[in-house]
Write a structure and sequence with these properties.
Layout lengths: L4 E11 L4 E12 L4 E5 L6 H9 L6 E9 L2 E2 L11 E4 L3 H4 L6 H8 L7 H14 L5 H6 L7 H12 L6 E5 L7 H13 L7 E5 L3 H7 L2 E6 L2 E6 L9 H8 L44 E4 L2 E3 L6
Parallel strand pairs: 3-8, 3-9, 6-7, 7-8
Antiparallel strand pairs: 1-2, 1-4, 4-5, 9-10, 10-12, 11-12
Helix pairs in contact: 3-6, 4-6, 6-7
């Protein structure tokens, strides 16, 4: 059964000392198997929190409600699929790799679910590094992260995330902080992973160049909600927020989005973009739009399309 990844009515609330902050607010989406799907949006929109909920890596002070299933099996609140069915490429290699551990130690830990012997783990690790473009894996296995370039560190993270050949891979901001040359290298690496047994991928990113080049479908998040999802989102945005977000890019003249974004965790009764939307009607401020599909394989939550 390859039903894919289904999320229904997912909310994630961080219980802080002075207040509760809802980072993900009633998200319901279906990520089909066999595709690379991107999740885009501004910093603080909830995309990384959504990814951590899928992986079961939310901190103990986070409370999650709703459901997440992978091919029909429940995931929410468990890590049993992590490393086996779900792999992770975290953001920022310099922070994600332990500076006191060698590359071999990182890979051996990632391979634990396979119950390999030390010799088998070392051989598998060397092959993983070859697959990701390291011509001298024996040297790299002995290296510490600081002895590798940024691009090499990112490829090591890719090897760690795909060590057990998971059916799904989640890459969280894989190009964050990288220059254009390293970004292109990461793009090539992620693109090549589909030929190494990783059939499905979620890419959480603010990098629209990466999203445009790599992803077949995109989900757009704002204030903890998915407002739009489908194919052709960047070429033909349907939601007013997506259009405004794209118009604010340098290639479109830095046109600022009017108004102020909701503060972290602020819940509005209607559409979260209503206070800033040029098409806002009174209904938008009091009702949350449901999902509609005005175009094939393109979902949007906006009353303009009812």
């Amino acid at each position: 059964m390859t039903d894919g990844l289904r999320i229904k009515d997912l909310s994630v609330t961080f219980q802080l000392r002075d207040r509760d902050v809802r980072a993900v607010d009633g998200v319901s989406v279906h990520f089909p198997a066999g595709q690379i799907t991107g999740i885009i949006g501004e910093s603080g929109c909830g995309k990384s929190v959504l990814g951590m909920a899928v992986l079961g890596l939310l901190p103990p002070y986070a409370k999650a409600a709703g459901s997440i299933t992978l091919d029909g099996s429940p995931l929410l609140g468990t890590r049993r699929a992590l490393g086996v069915k779900l792999g992770l490429i975290p953001q920022n290699p310099a922070e994600s790799l332990n500076p006191a551990r060698t590359v071999q130690a990182h890979l051996s830990e990632a391979l634990r679910p396979l119950s390999l012997s030390r010799r088998e783990a070392k051989a598998w690790s060397a092959q993983l590094l070859r697959d990701f473009g390291f011509p001298d894996p024996a040297r790299v296995l002995k290296a510490y992260p600081h002895e590798l370039s940024g691009g090499m560190q990112q490829r090591v993270l890719c090897a760690v995330g795909s060590a057990c050949t998971p059916a799904w891979l989640l890459a969280d901001e894989p190009t964050k902080g990288l220059d254009s040359a390293l970004r292109d290298q990461v793009l090539d690496t992620l693109g090549s992973m589909r030929g190494r047994g990783v059939a499905s991928m979620l890419v959480i990113t603010h990098d629209l160049t990466l999203a445009r080049s790599l992803c077949q479908s995109l989900a757009v998040m704002y204030a903890g909600q998915v407002l739009e999802m489908g194919q052709g989102v960047l070429e033909h945005p349907l939601h007013p927020y997506t259009a405004a977000f794209l118009n604010a890019l340098p290639e479109h003249g830095f046109q600022p989005i009017q108004g102020i974004a909701p503060r972290a965790g602020q819940r509005l009764p209607g559409c979260p973009f209503a206070p800033r939307c040029p098409h806002c009607r009174e209904r938008c401020t009091r009702e949350r739009p449901g999902a509609c599909q005005p175009e094939s394989q393109h979902m949007v939550r906006c009353f303009l399309y009812e």
